[in-house]
Write a structure and sequence with these properties.
This protein has 5 helices and no strands. It is mainly alpha-helical.
Length: 105
């Protein structure tokens, strides 16, 4: 989803680079957008997961329904994978040639 967003915003990113934004600024902008999506997912998903574990208690083996370690490990793993997934489109966006991006339209 983030890669599609970056590809649609090629002209905007090219203008930012042409006006004087550093490649680091573009990189941070794209990663911030991806992390915002992850944070929104965690805000919605963690309470939902916490609530549904009561329904799945009979399926859990040697784990309590509200095991903090499992929730923390899943959250950390999700954030690490999301950060890695944000890195590819962010690097691609930071390497956009401003002149070529402006000629696309």
């Amino acid at each position: 989803m983030l890669a599609i967003s970056v590809s649609r915003r090629t002209a905007e990113i090219g203008i930012r680079l042409a006006v004087g934004a550093s490649r680091g600024n573009v990189l941070r902008m794209v990663v911030r957008e991806g992390i915002t999506l992850v944070a929104a997912g965690l805000v919605i998903g963690l309470p939902a997961a916490f609530a549904t574990t009561r329904l799945l208690t009979s399926l859990l083996f040697d784990v309590t329904a509200h095991d903090a370690t499992s929730f923390a490990a899943a959250t950390v793993m999700l954030c690490a994978v999301a950060l890695a997934a944000c890195g590819v489109p962010a690097l691609r966006a930071s390497r956009i040639n401003p002149i070529a991006a402006l000629r696309i339209d």
